[in-house]
Structure formats: C-alpha cells, structure tokens
Write a structure and sequence with these properties.
- The structure is a single chain.
- The chain contains six helices and 18 strands.
- The chain has 264 residues and is α+β, with helices and mostly antiparallel strands.
- It has an 18-stranded mixed sheet that branches.
- A hairpin with a 4-residue loop joins β7 and β8.
- It holds the Pfam family PhzC-PhzF.
Length: 264
C-alpha cells in the first residue's frame, strides 16, 4: 500500500528555516508500530498523522522515539498542508487529540493561528548535573511543567549554550526549555529533548504553552512576540487568553510524495 507524505517548514516563511515536520494524511489509522517506524525513518522532530472525523480531524504526533502528547509545529504543518495541498475549504480546522483536547487552527490570510492549552510552569528544584550538561551557567529561575523551564538574564545566555546532548538525555525529563528576554522581541528560547530523539528542536509550539503564560506575567502584557533562536530560527506571534494560548506563525511546503508500506 502507499500513503501520501508531505513535509513543511513551520514557523517560518523561508524554505530551510523554522521547524520541518512530516505530515501523513490517512484514511484510517495504521498500526502504532508502523507509524512509529515511519517517524523514525523520517528522522524529523515530529511526524503528524491525521484521519478525518465528524468534528474535523483526529491528529497524532510521533518523534523518532515515541508518540508525544502535544506538538505545535507539526499541527501548524498539518493545517498548512490541508489548506494548500489538500483543498480544505473554510478558514478554521479542528484537530481532536487524545491528550491535548481539541486544537483549533485558523488561517487569517497571512499566518496560521493556533489555539492551544496554557501550561504555566511551577517552581521546581534544579536536577543534579543539568547546569553542567547545558554549558555551566546557572539559571536565575527553575520551573517545570511537562518540561523543565530555565530562565536566564539575556539572549546571549541562550544563543551561547552548547549542550552535551548525550549527557542531557540521561536527565529525567522529556525536554528542557531555556529562555530569556530578547533584544528585539519579548523573549527568546531554545528547546532540547534528546531523550525523545530530538537533540534540539528548531521551533517548539508546545514549549510556548509554558513560555507564554510565564512571560505574560513577567512583562505585564498578554500579547507577545517571540523567536526561538536555534540554528534554523523561528518566529511566533503569541497571546495569552485565560487558560488558553494563541500562537501564530507561517509555513512553507518543502516536499510531497508517497510512502510504500509492505503488505503484512
């Protein structure tokens, strides 16, 4: 059998920027093990799979190592492919997910706007060894939700980090977010998740579910502009709306083709 595959760069308007995600539209779910193998073969931070339902689409995301509970850039990429490649009509898509509820993506003619759950981080103890594997500078604040969130003084603290990814994979967490005020935007960040098979994720929507409520509180405003300062870079326009966050970004299509699945 064959299934279609697309790849799009999310949170950017420039090809080879932002965060690449694979997108596989399905008529029905493949076995979980097959979807995991496809994600491993793609070797991208996430591969998204979706199936049409009465509300819109059921959506799931896989890293090369595991199925994940929430992914922003692959959701944006999935919406982009539906709108630009698959003839989706209308300006709003609802994605139903198992662990993150319903995620709504709207096309406003310039950017895709995604409505996600807010996940404010709470105070936490610094895991033993984490500072050393990130490069040796201690954060000014340590928080956690699903991932650790480490707060630093300035953008150079973030861009100058050279983590030891092998050692970081041994820390008991899915991911580590590092963040600081930006020089030209409200805040910057990077995201490391080697335990999930993603040494550094170029642009991470789920991390901003933590970052938006934190920086909204710190800066005293609900509308924020953010950059993820990985090598590929990514730009997000953000808003805190009660217990939800809105993240807007752009996307470009890189690839479309077919995957050949052998008969079982």
């Amino acid at each position: 059998m064959t299934i279609p595959i697309y790849q799009a760069d999310a949170f950017t308007d420039k090809l080879f920027g932002g965060n690449p995600a694979a997108v596989c539209p399905l008529d029905e779910w493949l076995p979980d093990a097959t979807m995991q193998k496809i994600a491993l073969e793609n070797n991208l931070a996430e591969t998204a799979f979706f199936v049409k339902n009465e509300n819109g689409y059921l959506l799931r995301w896989f890293t090369p190592e595991l199925e994940i509970d929430l992914c922003g850039h692959a959701t944006l990429a999935s919406a982009h492919i539906l709108f630009t490649e698959l003839g989706y009509e209308g300006d709003t898509i609802c994605f139903d997910t198992v662990k993150a509820g319903t995620l709504v993506v709207k096309w406003d003619g310039d950017k895709y706007s995604m409505d996600f759950p807010s996940r404010p981080p709470f105070a936490a103890d610094l895991p033993e060894g984490l500072v050393a594997v990130l490069g040796g500078k201690a954060p000014k604040e340590v928080l956690r939700n699903r991932d650790y969130v480490l707060i630093y003084d300035n953008e150079e603290d973030i861009t100058g980090m050279t983590p030891d990814h092998s050692a970081l994979a041994k820390i008991n967490t899915l991911g580590v977010i590092v963040t600081a005020p930006g020089k030209h935007v409200d805040f910057v960040s990077r995201f490391f998740a080697p335990a999930a098979g993603v040494p550094e994720d170029p642009v991470t929507g789920s991390a901003h579910c933590n970052l938006i409520p934190y920086w909204a509180g710190k800066l005293g405003k609900n509308t924020l502009h953010a950059y993820q300062v990985s090598a590929r870079h990514g730009e997000l326009w953000c808003e805190l709306k009660g217990d939800r966050v809105v993240m807007a970004g752009k996307a470009v299509t890189y690839l479309k083709g077919e995957i050949y699945i052998p008969a079982s």
